[in-house]
Amino acid sequence: MTGQPKRFYVETLGCPKNQVDSEKLIGTMLADGLTATDDASEADVVVVNTCAFIEDARRESIDTILALDEKRAESSRLVVTGCMAERYGDELASALPEVDLVAGFGVPVVPVGRTTIPVSSTPIPTFDLLNLPRPKSSVPWAYVKIAEGCDRSCGFCAIPSFRGPQRSRDVDAILAEVDQLQVTEIVLVAQDLASYGKDRPDELGAGSIVDLVSKVSARVPWTRLLYLYPSDLSDELIDAILATGVPYFDLSLQHVSKPLLRRMRRWGDGERFLQRIADIRRREPGATFRSNFIVGYPGETEADHDQLLDFVSEADLDWCGFFAYSPEEGTYAYDLDGAVAPELVRQRLAELTEMQDAITARRRDLLIGSTIEVLVDQPGVARSRREAPEIDGIVEVPSDLAVGEFHEVLVTSALGPDLMADHVGAGVD
Ligand code: SF4
Questions:
Q1: Whose Cα sits closest to atom 5 in ligand 1?
Q2: Is 223 close to ligand 1, i.e. is its CB under 6 Å away?
Q3: Is 7 helix (H, G, I), strand (E, B) or coil?
Q4: CB 32 within 8 A of CB 7
Q5: Distance 336 CA to ligand 1 centre (A)
Q6: Most buried by CB count within 10 Å: which residue of 279, 356, 357, 412?
Q7: What pLDDT is recorded for position 118?
Q8: Residue pLDDT, tens place only, 20-66
Q9: How confident is the model at residue 133 (pLDDT cuts 50, 70, 90)?
Q10: 342 and 378 fall within a common domain
Q11: Is the CB of residue 159 below 6 angstroms from any atom belonging to ligand 1?
Protein backbone atom coordinates (compact mmCIF):
# COMPACT_ATOMS: atom_id res chain seq x y z
CA MET A 1 0.00 0.00 0.00
CA THR A 2 2.17 2.85 -1.26
CA GLY A 3 1.70 6.19 0.43
CA GLN A 4 0.63 4.59 3.71
CA PRO A 5 2.57 5.68 6.77
CA LYS A 6 5.17 3.22 7.97
CA ARG A 7 6.58 4.56 11.23
CA PHE A 8 4.76 6.13 14.14
CA TYR A 9 5.71 8.21 17.14
CA VAL A 10 3.40 8.64 20.14
CA GLU A 11 3.73 11.33 22.81
CA THR A 12 1.56 10.79 25.90
CA LEU A 13 0.51 13.52 28.30
CA GLY A 14 -1.53 13.34 31.47
CA CYS A 15 -2.47 10.51 33.75
CA PRO A 16 -1.83 6.76 33.88
CA LYS A 17 -5.20 6.17 32.24
CA ASN A 18 -3.97 8.06 29.19
CA GLN A 19 -0.86 5.95 29.12
CA VAL A 20 -2.96 2.81 28.85
CA ASP A 21 -4.86 4.36 25.94
CA SER A 22 -1.56 5.15 24.23
CA GLU A 23 -0.34 1.60 24.69
CA LYS A 24 -3.52 0.34 23.10
CA LEU A 25 -3.09 2.75 20.18
CA ILE A 26 0.47 1.50 19.82
CA GLY A 27 -0.74 -2.11 19.95
CA THR A 28 -3.26 -1.40 17.22
CA MET A 29 -0.77 0.37 14.98
CA LEU A 30 1.77 -2.43 15.43
CA ALA A 31 -0.94 -4.93 14.55
CA ASP A 32 -1.64 -2.83 11.44
CA GLY A 33 1.96 -3.32 10.31
CA LEU A 34 3.39 0.05 11.35
CA THR A 35 6.64 0.29 13.28
CA ALA A 36 7.44 2.47 16.27
CA THR A 37 10.15 5.11 16.36
CA ASP A 38 11.26 7.23 19.29
CA ASP A 39 12.38 10.04 16.99
CA ALA A 40 9.46 12.23 15.94
CA SER A 41 11.43 13.63 13.01
CA GLU A 42 11.59 10.15 11.45
CA ALA A 43 7.93 9.26 11.93
CA ASP A 44 5.30 9.15 9.22
CA VAL A 45 2.56 9.52 11.83
CA VAL A 46 3.08 11.65 14.93
CA VAL A 47 0.37 11.13 17.56
CA VAL A 48 -0.13 13.38 20.58
CA ASN A 49 -2.37 11.82 23.24
CA THR A 50 -3.52 14.95 25.07
CA CYS A 51 -4.75 15.72 28.55
CA ALA A 52 -7.48 18.26 29.24
CA PHE A 53 -7.80 17.81 32.97
CA ILE A 54 -6.90 21.37 34.00
CA GLU A 55 -5.73 24.48 32.24
CA ASP A 56 -2.02 23.76 32.80
CA ALA A 57 -2.47 20.34 31.22
CA ARG A 58 -4.21 21.86 28.21
CA ARG A 59 -1.42 24.41 27.78
CA GLU A 60 1.15 21.62 27.96
CA SER A 61 -0.80 19.68 25.35
CA ILE A 62 -0.84 22.63 22.94
CA ASP A 63 2.87 23.35 23.52
CA THR A 64 3.65 19.71 22.81
CA ILE A 65 1.59 19.70 19.62
CA LEU A 66 3.37 22.83 18.37
CA ALA A 67 6.82 21.53 19.33
CA LEU A 68 6.22 18.26 17.53
CA ASP A 69 4.90 20.10 14.51
CA GLU A 70 8.24 21.94 14.33
CA LYS A 71 10.16 18.71 14.63
CA ARG A 72 8.23 16.36 12.36
CA ALA A 73 9.00 15.65 8.71
CA GLU A 74 7.01 17.70 6.23
CA SER A 75 5.43 14.62 4.69
CA SER A 76 4.27 13.24 8.06
CA ARG A 77 0.78 13.38 9.56
CA LEU A 78 0.16 15.02 12.91
CA VAL A 79 -2.68 13.43 14.85
CA VAL A 80 -4.15 14.76 18.08
CA THR A 81 -6.21 12.41 20.21
CA GLY A 82 -7.10 11.95 23.89
CA CYS A 83 -9.12 14.04 26.30
CA MET A 84 -8.47 17.40 24.70
CA ALA A 85 -9.43 16.14 21.26
CA GLU A 86 -12.58 14.67 22.75
CA ARG A 87 -13.51 17.77 24.64
CA TYR A 88 -12.40 20.61 22.37
CA GLY A 89 -12.28 18.89 18.97
CA ASP A 90 -13.87 21.72 16.98
CA GLU A 91 -11.83 24.47 18.60
CA LEU A 92 -8.60 22.51 18.27
CA ALA A 93 -9.21 21.72 14.64
CA SER A 94 -9.79 25.36 13.75
CA ALA A 95 -7.14 26.85 16.06
CA LEU A 96 -4.35 24.49 15.00
CA PRO A 97 -4.38 24.16 11.20
CA GLU A 98 -1.03 22.36 11.42
CA VAL A 99 -2.86 19.32 12.84
CA ASP A 100 -3.94 16.80 10.19
CA LEU A 101 -6.43 14.86 12.26
CA VAL A 102 -8.23 15.50 15.51
CA ALA A 103 -9.51 12.12 16.60
CA GLY A 104 -11.68 11.18 19.57
CA PHE A 105 -11.28 7.99 21.57
CA GLY A 106 -11.16 4.90 19.44
CA VAL A 107 -11.11 6.71 16.09
CA PRO A 108 -8.39 5.15 13.93
CA VAL A 109 -5.47 7.56 14.14
CA VAL A 110 -3.79 6.73 10.85
CA PRO A 111 -5.28 9.37 8.60
CA VAL A 112 -5.92 8.75 4.97
CA GLY A 113 -5.49 12.02 3.12
CA ARG A 114 -5.43 15.35 4.87
CA THR A 115 -8.67 15.28 6.82
CA THR A 116 -9.79 16.95 9.96
CA ILE A 117 -12.53 15.32 11.96
CA PRO A 118 -14.14 17.46 14.60
CA VAL A 119 -15.29 15.22 17.38
CA SER A 120 -16.56 17.37 20.20
CA SER A 121 -20.11 17.12 18.92
CA THR A 122 -20.07 13.42 19.77
CA PRO A 123 -21.96 13.37 23.06
CA ILE A 124 -20.56 10.20 24.61
CA PRO A 125 -17.98 7.84 23.18
CA THR A 126 -19.75 4.70 22.04
CA PHE A 127 -16.54 2.83 21.45
CA ASP A 128 -13.36 3.18 23.34
CA LEU A 129 -9.93 1.72 23.60
CA LEU A 130 -10.60 -0.55 26.55
CA ASN A 131 -10.47 -3.86 24.77
CA LEU A 132 -7.89 -3.18 22.09
CA PRO A 133 -4.66 -5.19 22.17
CA ARG A 134 -1.53 -3.64 23.68
CA PRO A 135 2.12 -4.53 23.33
CA LYS A 136 4.03 -6.45 25.96
CA SER A 137 5.29 -4.03 28.61
CA SER A 138 8.93 -2.93 28.38
CA VAL A 139 9.12 -2.42 32.16
CA PRO A 140 8.22 -4.94 34.87
CA TRP A 141 4.93 -3.21 35.66
CA ALA A 142 1.88 -2.08 33.69
CA TYR A 143 -1.32 -0.15 34.19
CA VAL A 144 -4.53 -2.01 33.44
CA LYS A 145 -7.66 0.05 33.01
CA ILE A 146 -10.67 -1.82 34.39
CA ALA A 147 -13.40 0.70 33.53
CA GLU A 148 -13.87 3.85 31.52
CA GLY A 149 -15.96 6.88 32.44
CA CYS A 150 -17.50 7.90 35.74
CA ASP A 151 -21.01 8.00 37.24
CA ARG A 152 -20.24 10.61 39.89
CA SER A 153 -20.66 14.35 39.50
CA CYS A 154 -17.93 15.99 41.53
CA GLY A 155 -18.36 19.76 41.25
CA PHE A 156 -14.91 20.48 39.81
CA CYS A 157 -14.64 17.60 37.37
CA ALA A 158 -15.41 17.60 33.66
CA ILE A 159 -14.39 13.99 33.09
CA PRO A 160 -17.90 12.46 33.13
CA SER A 161 -18.98 14.98 30.48
CA PHE A 162 -16.47 13.76 27.93
CA ARG A 163 -15.49 10.28 29.07
CA GLY A 164 -19.14 9.37 29.57
CA PRO A 165 -20.75 7.18 32.23
CA GLN A 166 -18.86 4.27 33.74
CA ARG A 167 -18.44 1.18 31.59
CA SER A 168 -16.82 -1.70 33.45
CA ARG A 169 -14.87 -4.25 31.47
CA ASP A 170 -15.48 -7.98 31.59
CA VAL A 171 -13.43 -9.79 34.22
CA ASP A 172 -12.17 -12.22 31.57
CA ALA A 173 -10.94 -9.41 29.31
CA ILE A 174 -9.07 -7.81 32.22
CA LEU A 175 -7.48 -11.11 33.24
CA ALA A 176 -6.52 -11.88 29.64
CA GLU A 177 -4.79 -8.50 29.43
CA VAL A 178 -3.01 -9.14 32.73
CA ASP A 179 -1.73 -12.48 31.37
CA GLN A 180 -0.70 -10.98 28.05
CA LEU A 181 1.35 -8.20 29.67
CA GLN A 182 3.61 -10.70 31.49
CA VAL A 183 4.66 -8.25 34.16
CA THR A 184 5.52 -8.55 37.83
CA GLU A 185 3.31 -5.70 38.98
CA ILE A 186 -0.15 -4.72 37.77
CA VAL A 187 -1.50 -1.29 38.63
CA LEU A 188 -5.29 -1.22 38.31
CA VAL A 189 -6.71 2.13 37.22
CA ALA A 190 -10.09 3.65 36.42
CA GLN A 191 -11.71 7.01 37.01
CA ASP A 192 -13.40 5.59 40.12
CA LEU A 193 -11.80 2.23 40.75
CA ALA A 194 -13.83 0.97 43.71
CA SER A 195 -17.08 1.49 41.75
CA TYR A 196 -16.03 -1.20 39.30
CA GLY A 197 -19.05 -3.30 38.35
CA LYS A 198 -21.76 -0.95 39.67
CA ASP A 199 -22.82 -0.09 36.13
CA ARG A 200 -23.46 -3.78 35.39
CA PRO A 201 -25.62 -4.83 38.35
CA ASP A 202 -26.71 -8.14 36.81
CA GLU A 203 -23.35 -9.55 35.76
CA LEU A 204 -20.94 -7.75 38.12
CA GLY A 205 -22.53 -5.41 40.67
CA ALA A 206 -21.29 -3.17 43.47
CA GLY A 207 -18.34 -4.60 45.35
CA SER A 208 -17.10 -6.72 42.46
CA ILE A 209 -13.74 -4.93 42.70
CA VAL A 210 -13.03 -7.23 45.68
CA ASP A 211 -13.27 -10.39 43.62
CA LEU A 212 -11.38 -8.80 40.74
CA VAL A 213 -8.48 -7.75 42.97
CA SER A 214 -8.22 -11.31 44.32
CA LYS A 215 -8.22 -12.77 40.81
CA VAL A 216 -5.61 -10.36 39.48
CA SER A 217 -3.36 -10.79 42.49
CA ALA A 218 -3.47 -14.58 42.06
CA ARG A 219 -1.74 -14.02 38.70
CA VAL A 220 1.00 -11.49 39.50
CA PRO A 221 3.29 -10.97 42.49
CA TRP A 222 2.20 -7.36 43.04
CA THR A 223 -1.23 -5.79 42.44
CA ARG A 224 -1.68 -2.10 43.20
CA LEU A 225 -4.87 -0.02 43.10
CA LEU A 226 -5.06 3.69 42.26
CA TYR A 227 -7.92 6.18 42.81
CA LEU A 228 -10.18 4.84 45.54
CA TYR A 229 -13.21 7.02 46.29
CA PRO A 230 -13.38 6.91 50.11
CA SER A 231 -17.04 5.89 50.52
CA ASP A 232 -16.41 2.68 48.59
CA LEU A 233 -13.46 1.57 50.65
CA SER A 234 -15.30 -1.31 52.33
CA ASP A 235 -13.81 -3.70 54.90
CA GLU A 236 -13.88 -6.40 52.23
CA LEU A 237 -11.90 -4.24 49.83
CA ILE A 238 -9.36 -3.34 52.53
CA ASP A 239 -8.92 -7.06 53.26
CA ALA A 240 -8.52 -7.83 49.57
CA ILE A 241 -5.88 -5.10 49.19
CA LEU A 242 -3.98 -6.29 52.26
CA ALA A 243 -4.12 -9.86 50.94
CA THR A 244 -2.31 -8.80 47.75
CA GLY A 245 0.83 -8.12 49.79
CA VAL A 246 0.89 -4.50 48.54
CA PRO A 247 -0.76 -2.57 51.40
CA TYR A 248 -0.93 0.65 49.40
CA PHE A 249 -4.02 2.87 49.66
CA ASP A 250 -4.48 5.70 47.19
CA LEU A 251 -7.47 7.53 48.64
CA SER A 252 -9.04 10.21 46.47
CA LEU A 253 -10.03 12.63 49.27
CA GLN A 254 -9.84 16.10 47.57
CA HIS A 255 -10.56 17.97 50.83
CA VAL A 256 -11.53 17.35 54.45
CA SER A 257 -13.88 20.25 55.32
CA LYS A 258 -17.40 18.82 55.32
CA PRO A 259 -19.20 21.94 53.97
CA LEU A 260 -16.58 22.35 51.28
CA LEU A 261 -16.78 18.67 50.34
CA ARG A 262 -20.54 19.07 49.95
CA ARG A 263 -19.93 22.07 47.72
CA MET A 264 -17.66 19.76 45.78
CA ARG A 265 -20.59 17.31 45.70
CA ARG A 266 -18.47 14.68 47.37
CA TRP A 267 -18.83 12.32 50.31
CA GLY A 268 -17.10 12.34 53.66
CA ASP A 269 -15.21 14.61 56.04
CA GLY A 270 -11.81 14.69 57.71
CA GLU A 271 -12.92 12.82 60.82
CA ARG A 272 -14.27 9.87 58.85
CA PHE A 273 -11.16 9.80 56.71
CA LEU A 274 -8.92 9.75 59.78
CA GLN A 275 -10.97 6.90 61.27
CA ARG A 276 -10.67 4.85 58.11
CA ILE A 277 -6.92 5.45 57.91
CA ALA A 278 -6.59 4.42 61.58
CA ASP A 279 -8.68 1.27 60.89
CA ILE A 280 -6.32 0.29 58.11
CA ARG A 281 -3.22 1.03 60.19
CA ARG A 282 -4.61 -1.13 63.00
CA ARG A 283 -4.84 -4.03 60.58
CA GLU A 284 -1.56 -3.29 58.82
CA PRO A 285 0.78 -0.88 60.62
CA GLY A 286 3.05 -0.81 57.58
CA ALA A 287 0.32 0.37 55.17
CA THR A 288 1.26 3.16 52.78
CA PHE A 289 -1.15 6.00 52.00
CA ARG A 290 -1.39 8.49 49.18
CA SER A 291 -4.01 11.16 48.60
CA ASN A 292 -4.75 14.20 46.46
CA PHE A 293 -6.31 17.49 47.50
CA ILE A 294 -7.72 20.45 45.64
CA VAL A 295 -6.75 23.86 46.97
CA GLY A 296 -8.77 27.02 46.32
CA TYR A 297 -12.11 25.45 45.37
CA PRO A 298 -14.75 28.24 45.26
CA GLY A 299 -15.80 29.10 48.79
CA GLU A 300 -12.72 27.59 50.51
CA THR A 301 -12.35 29.68 53.66
CA GLU A 302 -9.39 30.19 55.92
CA ALA A 303 -11.08 27.81 58.37
CA ASP A 304 -11.42 25.13 55.64
CA HIS A 305 -7.76 25.53 54.81
CA ASP A 306 -6.78 25.26 58.49
CA GLN A 307 -8.79 22.04 58.72
CA LEU A 308 -6.86 20.66 55.79
CA LEU A 309 -3.53 21.63 57.37
CA ASP A 310 -4.58 19.94 60.63
CA PHE A 311 -5.62 16.85 58.72
CA VAL A 312 -2.37 16.63 56.78
CA SER A 313 -0.42 16.96 60.01
CA GLU A 314 -2.50 14.34 61.85
CA ALA A 315 -2.99 11.83 59.04
CA ASP A 316 0.76 11.55 58.51
CA LEU A 317 0.31 10.19 54.99
CA ASP A 318 3.26 8.96 53.01
CA TRP A 319 2.44 10.82 49.80
CA CYS A 320 0.14 13.73 48.99
CA GLY A 321 -0.52 15.75 45.88
CA PHE A 322 -1.97 19.28 46.15
CA PHE A 323 -3.49 20.90 43.09
CA ALA A 324 -4.81 24.41 42.54
CA TYR A 325 -8.49 24.42 41.63
CA SER A 326 -8.98 25.06 37.93
CA PRO A 327 -12.40 26.23 36.72
CA GLU A 328 -13.64 23.89 34.00
CA GLU A 329 -16.37 24.94 31.62
CA GLY A 330 -19.53 22.92 31.95
CA THR A 331 -18.88 21.83 35.54
CA TYR A 332 -21.08 22.60 38.52
CA ALA A 333 -18.32 24.62 40.18
CA TYR A 334 -17.69 26.82 37.15
CA ASP A 335 -20.41 29.30 38.13
CA LEU A 336 -20.03 29.01 41.90
CA ASP A 337 -19.30 32.20 43.79
CA GLY A 338 -16.50 32.56 46.32
CA ALA A 339 -13.52 32.39 43.96
CA VAL A 340 -10.26 32.29 45.92
CA ALA A 341 -7.65 34.82 44.83
CA PRO A 342 -4.76 33.18 42.91
CA GLU A 343 -2.17 34.64 45.29
CA LEU A 344 -3.99 33.10 48.25
CA VAL A 345 -4.19 29.74 46.46
CA ARG A 346 -0.44 29.89 45.88
CA GLN A 347 0.18 30.60 49.56
CA ARG A 348 -2.08 27.77 50.66
CA LEU A 349 -0.44 25.36 48.26
CA ALA A 350 3.02 26.36 49.47
CA GLU A 351 2.01 25.89 53.10
CA LEU A 352 0.53 22.44 52.47
CA THR A 353 3.39 21.31 50.27
CA GLU A 354 5.99 22.41 52.78
CA MET A 355 4.20 20.56 55.56
CA GLN A 356 3.77 17.37 53.53
CA ASP A 357 7.33 17.40 52.17
CA ALA A 358 8.58 17.35 55.75
CA ILE A 359 6.21 14.49 56.63
CA THR A 360 7.22 12.48 53.56
CA ALA A 361 10.92 13.05 54.27
CA ARG A 362 10.51 12.03 57.91
CA ARG A 363 8.61 8.88 57.01
CA ARG A 364 11.30 8.00 54.47
CA ASP A 365 14.06 8.60 57.05
CA LEU A 366 12.39 6.04 59.32
CA LEU A 367 13.27 3.36 56.78
CA ILE A 368 17.03 3.97 57.00
CA GLY A 369 18.72 0.87 58.34
CA SER A 370 15.90 -1.50 57.39
CA THR A 371 15.98 -4.26 54.82
CA ILE A 372 13.25 -3.95 52.21
CA GLU A 373 12.13 -5.92 49.21
CA VAL A 374 12.33 -4.03 45.92
CA LEU A 375 11.41 -4.66 42.32
CA VAL A 376 14.04 -3.30 39.94
CA ASP A 377 12.42 -1.23 37.14
CA GLN A 378 15.64 -0.34 35.32
CA PRO A 379 19.35 -0.59 36.14
CA GLY A 380 19.89 1.21 39.44
CA VAL A 381 16.22 2.19 39.91
CA ALA A 382 13.79 0.17 41.98
CA ARG A 383 10.63 0.47 44.04
CA SER A 384 9.26 -1.22 47.10
CA ARG A 385 5.56 -1.76 47.71
CA ARG A 386 5.51 1.78 49.20
CA GLU A 387 6.08 3.50 45.85
CA ALA A 388 3.69 3.49 42.92
CA PRO A 389 5.50 3.67 39.59
CA GLU A 390 5.95 7.14 38.10
CA ILE A 391 3.99 8.74 40.96
CA ASP A 392 5.91 8.37 44.20
CA GLY A 393 9.62 8.33 45.08
CA ILE A 394 12.08 5.64 44.02
CA VAL A 395 14.73 3.44 45.60
CA GLU A 396 18.22 3.86 44.15
CA VAL A 397 19.93 0.45 44.16
CA PRO A 398 23.26 -0.96 42.95
CA SER A 399 23.22 -1.21 39.18
CA ASP A 400 24.20 -4.89 39.19
CA LEU A 401 20.77 -5.94 40.53
CA ALA A 402 18.81 -7.73 37.80
CA VAL A 403 15.98 -5.73 36.20
CA GLY A 404 12.48 -7.17 36.56
CA GLU A 405 13.34 -9.17 39.67
CA PHE A 406 12.82 -8.81 43.39
CA HIS A 407 15.78 -8.21 45.67
CA GLU A 408 16.29 -7.61 49.37
CA VAL A 409 18.25 -4.39 49.90
CA LEU A 410 19.44 -2.37 52.86
CA VAL A 411 18.25 1.26 53.03
CA THR A 412 21.35 3.36 53.71
CA SER A 413 20.04 6.92 53.33
CA ALA A 414 17.13 9.03 52.14
CA LEU A 415 16.84 12.24 50.17
CA GLY A 416 13.37 13.80 50.21
CA PRO A 417 11.05 11.21 48.62
CA ASP A 418 13.85 8.88 47.44
CA LEU A 419 15.71 6.14 49.25
CA MET A 420 19.24 4.96 48.61
CA ALA A 421 19.86 1.28 49.20
CA ASP A 422 22.75 -1.16 48.98
CA HIS A 423 23.35 -4.90 49.01
CA VAL A 424 22.29 -6.45 52.29
CA GLY A 425 25.45 -6.65 54.41
CA ALA A 426 26.78 -3.26 53.27
CA GLY A 427 27.15 -0.64 56.00
CA VAL A 428 24.69 2.17 56.72
CA ASP A 429 26.16 5.70 56.28
S1 SF4 B 1 -15.02 10.49 40.90
FE2 SF4 B 1 -15.35 12.70 40.71
S3 SF4 B 1 -13.30 13.52 40.31
FE4 SF4 B 1 -13.19 11.33 39.86
S5 SF4 B 1 -13.64 11.20 37.65
FE6 SF4 B 1 -15.58 10.90 38.74
S7 SF4 B 1 -16.50 12.94 38.78
FE8 SF4 B 1 -14.32 13.22 38.32
A1: 191
A2: no
A3: strand
A4: no
A5: 18
A6: 356
A7: 35
A8: 888 878 887 887 788 889 899 999 889 999 887 777 778 888 889 98
A9: low
A10: no
A11: yes
